[in-house]
Automatic annotation (TrEMBL):
Organism of this sequence: Croceivirga radicis
Protein name per UniProt: Chemotaxis protein
UniProt superkingdom: Bacteria
Swiss-Prot/TrEMBL keywords: Membrane, Transmembrane, Transmembrane helix
Bilayer-crossing regions: 7-26, 175-192
Length: 204
């Protein structure tokens, strides 16, 4: 095998190597997007949705007690407040969109207002209209947060699908390119201009 043939083989192998590396980089980036989207759907959306549901459930318990004129037990209120604060601490660790952050900040402020009302025994026992109104405000905020979880979850699913479609597309392109390169390399290797020149000289 002469130097020119060796050079052709090296160039051919390098071309194939370049195509494989380039497509693998695209695939790796796409799979990273899928992995990140799946993690986001679970950690920041499903977990957040569950936290919202648990907070909503506590607020419903409070509303039921107020509507049925059940005597408010200080220990029960303290337990509910503690549970809500624990849920808020966990929700703080999730990634929030800008809109979600604004709604969540307002929710925490309104929740503090609710806790302040609960400390006022006269309002709680005589006229709980303000208390029920405050609960409704909090419920609306939780509904908004729940809707955002659904929207963001759908967005992440869409990102994952696009990434997987990209992987599929580049896999097909890689196969076609490798076939084309294999043909080109065979032509380059088999082509021998010197032999053709010698044949022309013999004819003349």
């Amino acid at each position: 095998m002469n130097f020119l043939t060796k050079l052709k083989w090296i160039l051919g192998i390098l071309l194939i190597f370049f195509v494989i590396v380039a497509t693998n980089l695209v695939d790796r980036n796409s799979f990273s997007l899928v992995k990140e989207s799946v993690a986001t759907i679970y950690e920041d959306r499903l977990v957040a949705k569950n936290l919202i549901f648990n907070m909503y459930k506590i607020l419903q318990e409070k509303k039921l007690d107020a509507v049925t004129a059940k005597p408010f037990a200080t220990t029960e209120l303290a337990g509910q407040q503690k549970e809500l604060n624990l849920l808020l601490d966990r929700f703080d660790n999730t990634k929030l969109t800008r809109e979600e952050g604004v709604i969540y900040s307002d929710f925490k402020t309104e929740l503090e207002n609710l806790f302040a009302l609960e400390k006022n025994e006269k309002i709680m026992e005589v006229d709980n209209a303000a208390y029920l109104k405050q609960l409704s405000v909090l419920e609306r905020s939780l509904n908004q947060l729940a809707n955002i979880q659904l929207e963001e979850g759908n967005r992440q699913v869409s990102i994952s699908r696009k990434a997987l479609n990209t992987v599929d597309l580049f896999t097909k392109i890689e196969i076609y390119l490798l076939i084309i390169l294999a043909v080109i390399i065979q032509v380059i290797i088999m082509y021998n201009p010197k032999k053709g020149d010698k044949d022309n000289l013999r004819v003349s």
